[in-house]
């Protein structure tokens, strides 16, 4: 079975990118970050304007939701690094380049809206948030994968994971304004996922063995782009125990739906290398299922103990 070079893949998939870009532009809804921020709730902070210093009591949003909001915003903050990575992987020519810039422009709204909302509503400590932003952006982000197909496979899962995280964070906030904003952001992420997912579907038709290898490599090593946030492991555990985003959701709402869409376990026409990759993927998914089930059992037992003590 023929193996395509990276240059050939970019060239062969360019018409698909053009078609998906046209579909995206027709489906995308124009929206404005300032319309989702309750500006009348704002007041001066301490400092130059001698207002009130931030206090934990300024917001009624639960702690786990605030932690998730911070993780989500800091992840969005690293957009310059993400832009560099996809521009390097996809190039800036023809439809590829148009998409890279369109995607970046849409993603930029998310950080703007989230920061304005959190600052105006005093949901988080703005000083700690700014220090965390400086630290996280100072570390940057580097794509762990090389090649067009690996990059497309990664963002197919990552965009959907981000959508789920935003939606569940909004629900956990118990704040209708916050939930409305995060639902709007999640809608953008869903359209981005559709773009990449459909693009990889075309790659499966063009180079099935290479596409399967890319999917297997990404699924078995997947990490969210916010992994480099200081204290991420502890924050991720709090988020997982709150049910905002955990391994069970990662399997059921992210991995399985995308893999079913590509029909990877029934796909015909794979060569020996593709079959080997598919076997690796199936074995990994089985192990992941066991781990997720154990986590849910431990979490339920922990919640039962806490309820008993209460």
What can you see in these coordinates?
73% of the residues lie in helices and 0% in strands. By secondary structure, the chain is mainly alpha-helical. Helix 4 packs antiparallel against helix 7. The longest helix has 38 residues, at 272-309. It is globular and about 70 Å long. It starts with 5 loop residues before the first helix and ends with a helix. Fe cation 2 binds at residues 107, 159, 189, 192.
The fraction of residues assigned to DSSP E strands is: under 5%
Give the termini separation: 63 Å
What fold name stands as the CATH topology? Ribonucleotide Reductase, subunit A
Average pLDDT for all residues: 96
Instruction: Tally the helices.
Output: 11
SS elements, strand count: 0
By secondary-structure content and strand pairing, the structural class works out as mainly alpha
Enzyme class: oxidoreductase
GO molecular function: metal ion binding; stearoyl-[ACP] desaturase activity
Family: Belongs to the fatty acid desaturase type 2 family.
Protein name: Acyl-[acyl-carrier-protein] desaturase
Write the layout of secondary structure elements.
Layout: H1 6-27, H2 63-77, H3 79-90, H4 94-121, H5 126-139, H6 148-172, H7 176-206, H8 208-221, H9 232-241, H10 247-262, H11 272-309
Features:
about 300 residues, mainly alpha, Ribonucleotide Reductase, subunit A, about 75% helix
Compact description:
The protein has 310 residues and is mainly α. The chain has helices spanning 6-27, 63-77, 79-90, 94-121, 126-139, 148-172, 176-206, 208-221, 232-241, 247-262, 272-309.
């Amino acid at each position: 079975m023929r193996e395509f070079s990276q240059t050939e893949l970019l060239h062969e998939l360019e018409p698909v990118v053009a078609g998906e870009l046209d579909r995206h532009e027709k489906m995308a809804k124009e929206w404005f970050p300032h319309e989702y921020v309750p500006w009348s709730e704002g007041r001066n902070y301490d400092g130059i304007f001698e207002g009130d210093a931030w206090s934990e009591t300024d917001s009624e949003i639960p702690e786990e939701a605030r932690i998730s909001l911070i993780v989500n915003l800091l992840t969005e903050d690293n957009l310059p690094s993400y832009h560099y990575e996809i521009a390097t992987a996809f190039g800036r020519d023809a439809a590829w380049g148009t998409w890279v810039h369109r995607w970046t422009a849409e993603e930029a709204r998310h950080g703007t809206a989230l920061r304005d909302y959190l600052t105006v509503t005093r949901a988080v400590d703005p000083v700690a948030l700014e220090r965390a932003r400086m630290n996280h952006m100072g570390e940057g982000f580097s794509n762990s994968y090389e090649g067009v197909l690996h990059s497309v496979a990664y963002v197919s899962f990552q965009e959907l994971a981000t959508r789920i995280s935003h939606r569940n964070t909004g629900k956990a906030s118990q704040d209708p304004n916050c939930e409305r904003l995060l639902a709007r952001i999640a809608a953008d992420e869903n359209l981005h996922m559709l773009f990449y997912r459909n693009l990889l579907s075309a790659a499966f038709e063009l180079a099935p063995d290479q596409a399967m290898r890319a999917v297997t490599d990404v699924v078995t090593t997947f990490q969210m782009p916010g992994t480099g946030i200081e204290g991420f492991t502890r924050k991720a555990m709090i988020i997982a125990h709150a049910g905002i985003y955990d391994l069970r959701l990662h399997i059921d709402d992210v991995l399985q739906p995308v893999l079913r869409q590509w029909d990877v376990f029934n796909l015909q026409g794979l060569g020996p290398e593709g079959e080997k990759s598919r076997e690796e993927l199936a074995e990994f998914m089985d192990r992941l299922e066991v781990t997720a089930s154990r986590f849910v059992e431990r979490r339920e037992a922990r919640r039962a103990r806490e309820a008993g003590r209460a």
